[in-house]
Amino acid sequence: MKTILRVAFFGAIAIASVIGAWYYLNNYKASSKASEAIANISYTVTRASVQPGGTVNVGVTVSTGTLHMSGIDLSFENIGDDNLDFVSATLPTGFDEQVLADSDVTTTRVDQTKRLKRLIFVSKKTEAQLPTSSVIIPLTFKVTNRGTSYLSTLRINLTSSQVSGPNIPENVFTLAGATNPLDFVVDSNPLTPTPTPDCRAEIPQGLTCDSQCGTNVILKWKDVTNEDGYRIYKDTQTIPIAILGKNQTAYTYAWCGDLDKHAYKVIAYNAACGSQSTTLPTMDCACSKCDNTIPSPTQGTIQPVNTADIILKLNFPDAASSVQAIRNVKVDIMNGSALACPGCSQMVSFTRVGNYFVSPQLSFRLEQTLPYTVVVKQAITVSRSYKFVYMQKNKLLNCSIGFDSACGQLLSEIDRRPMYSGDTNGFDTQSEGYNIIDKKDLSAVSIAVSQKTDQGDMNFDGISDTVDIGIVGKNFGQKGD
Hints:
- The chain has 481 residues and is mainly β.
- The protein folds into three domains: 38-187, Immunoglobulin-like (Sandwich), CATH 2.60.40.680; 205-285, Immunoglobulins (Immunoglobulin-like), CATH 2.60.40; 297-412, Immunoglobulin-like (Sandwich).
- The protein is 11% helix and 36% strand.
- The strands form six sheets. Strands 2, 4, 6, 7, 8, 10, 11 and 13 form an eight-stranded mixed sheet that branches. Strands 23, 24, 25, 26, 27, 29 and 30 form a seven-stranded antiparallel sheet that branches. The chain has a five-stranded mixed sheet with strand order 5-9-3-1-12, with no helix packed on it.
- A hairpin with a 3-residue loop joins strand 14 (205-212) and strand 15 (216-222).
- The chain is elongated.
- The N and C termini lie far apart (92 Å).
């Protein structure tokens, strides 16, 4: 009898344990895993009217309060009649990668619902530099009127959508939004059309162009109303070279390259309605060429009068063997951290002499014989600083031939610290990644090669090709002085 009771007792415990575990696991699985952090999603407007066959613009706002986002994944559905086709979406400011998952578009209908488009936006920035906690995604759709009704409803499916961010539980926000803000209704009745308000930014006026000798192009224009900022384009490129904020009226493009004219466009945009001004105005502009009347090395040298003169020899290892001259080389004579004199910064061309490139005779108004530092940089190379260069008034220091101890590191470091190509930041010392060859340079050169623009020419041969991409890869990680 005791044995039977003992077996019954332990059996009851085992059954209770199984039941408890079952309740625990099912309760865990049934409980919400969503974060308590809230991401609010809404349309900028909830209704629009457009003629059949026309396009309609609407913005989607994603807001996470004070928390930053690292990714946005939205699924759009056409409710009821199949009257809408997806056209385009604009990449939100601050997101570096856009993936349009075309494979997720399906014509399968379930309860008169059609998956119309899935959009995925991803940030590759570090956590401290993630996009702002509120973004607007401008969208464009085409009205087809394939169905029987003139009304089309575009709905965001919160179940299959997701917003992610760092430092919140499971890195996923809880999505919020009433039914109405997540429905965008399009009325395409041709009998009673209601015109959609034109919220495009005005066309910028008064575009002018200026430049600094061999250094940059300066674009200026008049500010317009109803704009959220400006996009700057060059030639036929589809990717802007710069995106500016509101009320900006000038942009300095720190790139000269071939010194030829290029077409620049200034486009005002309005993010709320997803539209922008036309592709006008355009301006043909080129960097002004430097006035260089000093003879080149092949023309001999002259005796300086009241100046300290110098001839430099540099190593540009990435220059193609066919290249005989390298233009836009900036030469600064420094005394400590400051220019040694007014006019101690010059932009000159270097001529090939054997395996090296030699400058013309350069004159500087130096009154003292000191251990100066010569800093040199070309628009696409890293910067180099050569120290212990003793320049003397009324004397030419020729560092291109023989050996003169007064040339300092211009001779001793010529091959140890060559002018590596790959830094696409030009002479803009304030730009991120200046004077270092990094992944942004590799990306910029790859894009330039694919679009066949001059900014991809890393070996000075006048052609942007895969050889230039290889040069950036070879020099990846190199830093200037």
